[in-house]
Amino acid sequence: MVEPQLSVVIPVFNEEENLPELLRRLIPALGALGRSFEVILVNDGSRDRSLELLRAAADRDPRLVVIDFNRNYGQHAAVFAGFESARGAVIVTLDADLQNPPEEIGKLVAKIDEGFDVVGSVRVQRQDSLFRRLASRLVNKATALTTGVQLSDYGCMLRAYRREVVQALCSSHEISTFIPVLADMFAGRVTEVEVAHAERARGESKYSLWKLVKLQFDLMTSFSVWPLRFAMLLGLIMSAGAMGVAVVLLGGRLLYGQQWAVSGVFTLFAVLFFFIGVLFFSVGLLGEYIGRIYMQVRQRPRFIIRSVISRKSQP
Ligand code: UDP
Ligand code: MG
């Protein structure tokens, strides 16, 4: 079978109300691009009729592929499963709830054609509740700080990737991760386009506050080890402070005699804090090693080679 030029990956979790409309709009929108495509729908353990609908749709249209999870593993796991079976040269991710209009896919694909590796999207006129927008802004700031990857909209999943980047993602052996940030680490040229954003057509957001918090922890721990190093810094400051205090106490004792500073009780404190500092430092040092082990076990690819140029490879 020939490989399609474009793969669209869509995670689906209890979206029975949105699926018919999604497919009705998506297929013509993709057809209008004038290239061969496949749509990979990953059913992330839906408990409603989503799977039934997907199965019926796949029966009618050979360009649809349905992957069915045995339970709910989360949006990013679902997208990964889609990535693993995507065969297109360009891979686009999309939400099933029609918040990202499928008609905008063309814009992203055009950017990839211009030579970008990853194309993100920024939601203009975001149609979410105020609370959700504030939460997102907070998340965006924290993410930029902890990961060092600047994206203007981390939450928007309407994104296009070149195949090499997706392959690098698939060979990163880590369990919890955040796809947009990981992808940007492997991408040479990244750009963003503005896309329209609609209100969730039907159904409820599948992200509870707890799921958002969990996602944030994933983000923080999978892209930096500074929380582990924090103890080291704290210990260093504490020990240095305690040493300073000890010097002052010693000086006072020499100047004012034995009675100064409650006959040495404060000295005891200085010694104590010095050792507590040393303890913190050692915990931090352990953290440093654990951080390195953690980096190592993920086995992320170290680089992607775009091409090898030598005289032999030229005809
Ligand atoms: N989703 C999923 N598994 C989950 C949660 C969400 O596959 O555990 C899918 C969901 O069906 C949708 C997309 O991820 O296609 C985004 O979810 P949602 O619209 O609820 O997120 P929000 O727009 O509120 O951030
Ligand atoms: Mg949504």
Helix residue percentage:
40-55%
Distance between the termini: 28 Å
Looking at the structure, what is the overall shape? elongated
What structural class is derived from the secondary structure elements? Answer: alpha/beta
Biggest sheet strand order reads: 3-2-1-4-6-5-7
Instruction: Give a count of the beta strands, DSSP E runs of length 2 or more.
Output: 7
Which series of helices and strands comes N to C? EHEHEHEHEHEHHEHHH
Q: Tell me the count of domains.
A: 2
CATH class of the largest domain: Alpha Beta
Notable traits:
binds uridine-5'-diphosphate, Spore Coat Polysaccharide Biosynthesis Protein SpsA, Chain A, elongated, alpha/beta, 7-stranded mixed beta sheet, about 10% strand, about 50% helix, single chain, binds magnesium ion, 7 strands, about 325 residues, 10 helices
Kindly describe this structure:
- This protein has 315 residues and is α/β, with parallel strands linked by helices.
- The mean pLDDT is 86.
- Helix 6 packs across helix 7.
- Strands 3-2-1-4-6-5-7 form a 7-stranded mixed beta sheet, with helices on both faces.
- The protein contains 10 helices and 7 strands.
- The protein folds into 2 domains: 6-208 and 302-313, Spore Coat Polysaccharide Biosynthesis Protein SpsA, Chain A; 226-297.
- The structure holds uridine-5'-diphosphate and magnesium ion.
- Residues 95, 97, 99, 200, 205 line the site of magnesium ion.
